[in-house]
Structure formats: structure tokens, C-alpha cells
Amino acid sequence: MSSYKNKCLEFFKLCSIEEKMSLMEIFSKDIKGPDNIPKRSNINSKLDTTEHFTYDKFVSYHNNLIDDNNFLDELRAELDNLDLYRANSKKPRSLWLGPSGTQSKDGCPLASYPNISKLLSMVNAREEIPHGDLDCCNIICYSNDKKSLRLHSDDESTISHTRPIATFSVGVPRTIEFVPKGSIHTHVVHSLEAQNNSLYIMKPGCQAVLQHRVLPGHNSDPQNQNQIRYSISFRKCKHIDDSDHSSPTLESEYSQTVASASSNLPPKQTPIPASLLLGDSFLARLDSIRLGKNKKVVLNLARGGNKMSDVLKTIEQFHDNAESSKYLIDQVYISAGTNDIRYCRHRGISHLKGQLFSLVRTVKATFPRAKVFIQTLLPQPVTTNNYSYIIKNIRALNDLILHICTHERIYILDAFRSFLYKGYRNRDLFNVSSNDIHPNKRGMGVLARLYIDRIHAKYFDPYSLN
Question: Which of 264, 279, 417, 427 could form a disulfide with 283 if both were Cys (CB 3.0 to 4.6 A apart)?
């Protein structure tokens, strides 16, 4: 019970006030005591999730569907004969199979493939398919682990939405993620690991409430045929001769299911586009209102003294804050490393590589729609030869930033060269005190101009960052 309550509280922290009110209504109706808590199905939460009693009624998962290994081998051979495998294709290749008289895309007869037809009969015989009349399928071949499917709903007009969609997996496992449809939130509410010889069923109403996606695998060799995965998605096609004669009872049940599920989703909101500043005192000294110029929201979460590890904590705190749901972060600017190299001395900065990679990947995962920029370190004062390692470490970290930006396909904001004069640190842009590493008022104006130009650029040109 304690783990159940902890997961509830973790998700509750992420919700806005409106979502919390909605969840409280659900809790008051559906939870009467420990004995009445529904058992969790074989769908594992990958990220912070809403309550399983809200979504489990739309998706079920069944492992080891078929015991006959000979049949599985014959089915795999039949799938291979469809000639869908292309090692270098950019997207997964697919094929529709269905009976004659349907509105399927390709119109290939499913009856011509005995093993797929036999699998369909097994699926229709399950109690989760109450009408047992699924009659077509979409076969998708993921030729290697790089192939994936982005968020979508199987809401084609050619299939019946009063029937479930049952997907059988053949080959290597893949993770399937489910995200609320019509919500501004992108966190995953459910995920499942579609193993070989497994079946997951999306019940009527699922396509109106949830979107789903297939994530890439973990291997990287596109020529390795052991990475192949086939998904056989059985549906009920709309027949030409009876497409206008759907059952009123079924349509009514479907409408009620969708209406009930939609009432549990958070109300639609229009997120506010915003730029997010993360890092140390260099960014903390910038005025977010002036950077926004009353045209765009700029959120400055930078703090003096922050190291890379502190920036990671800031991201987590922002993500956990309910207010963050109001914003659509489309730009993230990072200034970090100056407080880290202060303690490097003569040992170099190689130990910071993993931290910086982790920081960048966390930002990309947390804000998938955002352009990410990393600012290079500014030139620092060196008063004696004893501190000559500072110059070496700054140059090394700036080279590392360039390497990571190239590797992770993000952008570098080169502030280093803006603070040089004839190849040396421009003293006119820094405070007179030899111990102060921060720019003076004029220098902060130079730094602010770099950010203003990027934040308000109408036509983005990465080469203008050099």
C-alpha cells in the first residue's frame, strides 16, 4: 500500500490546481479502501503516471500468447516472405491485409496467408475481443533498432472504433508509450514492453483518449537482422455494404466510454511559449524582463555559484513545480562550468565530460521541443603564473562544449570571442578588481545582446552563433 501511495503522491506533485481537483474527484469515487484498489495490469509505468484505474481499462497486455513454437516459426517465415525488410529504409514499412469488400488501403487478401489467418482466429477467440469479428490487419516491419513510430492514434476512418485493436509482436522487444490525447503534457501515463509472442489490446475509446508511440531499440547496427520486429495489428474494417449500418448500441457504448474517459483528462490549455535560462551567476545577472522585451516570456532560473550538478537539480525542481505546466519551453540556454573548473586545478577537465553529457541529455529529454544552447565560458583573469591552468581548463571545457553540441546536435553560443580584444581578455568589459570574474555593466550589455539576438531571432541561422 505504501508504494502505491508514494506513486500517487509523486504524480500529484506534477499536477496543476485544476488537475489536482479532477484527481481528487476520481479518488473520492474510485478508491474506497485498500481492498477495493484494482490490481495493476502488466503495464509498467516508465515515468510519472496518472492512476492506473483511469487508463488500464483502455489497454491490456498478455505475454506468451502462443505455446506452439512450430507455429511461431512458420508465422515468422510467412512474415519474412512479405518482403517488408529494408535495412536502409528511413521509416518502418507496412502492409495492410483484409477481406474483400473492405475499405483497406492495400486490399491484399488476408486469407492468402494461412498463418496470419490462424493467428487472427486465436485473437478473435479471446474474451477481450467480445464480438470476435476482427477481420483485417496492418503489418509493420521495424528492420532495425533505429526504426520507431512517433506519437499517433489509430483513428483511421476505414476501421470501426467500436471494436478493439489487438497488436501481436514478433521479434525483438520494443517499448510502447501512451500519452494523454488533447493534453499539453507530454509525460508518459503508461508504458509496456512488447515482447516476442505478446499481445496488447487497445480497447474501444482508447484512440480518443490516448496517443501511443514505439520507441527505438538499444542496438545500433542497421545491418543486423536479429533486430527485426514485426507488429501485426488486427482491426475491424468498415465494409462497403454495411458501413452505414453500425449498431446503435455499440455506438452508444463507445460514446459513453469516450465521454467518461475525457472527463478525467485535464482541461485543454494554451501553453505560453517561453525561453528558459539555466546556469550560474553570469546568467543570473541578466534581467529576464529586458531579455523578453515584452514580447516573450523568459524564465531565468540561474543562480550564483551553481555547478553542473546544481543545474540538474534546478531542472528537476522546475519539472516538479505545477506552475511549469503553463509554459511550452521552446528554447533552453545553459551557462555552466565556471564554478566546476575552479576546483580542477592541474588535473584537467576530463572528469566533467560525463556530467556535461548528462546535463544536456536531461535537458533534451525534459524539453523535447526546445532548441538547446550552451554558452561557452568567458575568459577569466590570470594574475600570476600559478593560475595559468585556468586558461588551459577554460579552453579545454569550451572545446568539450563544442564537441558535445556537435554530438548531441544542439547549438553553441560563443560568448568567449565576444569578450576578447586582439586575442586577449578585453579588460574594458570586466570589473576592475582582479578577483572579480564577472563582466561590468558594459560587459553585461554585450552578454545580454547575445541572448536577445538569439531569443528574438525570426529566422534561425546556426552559423550566426560562431
Answer: 279
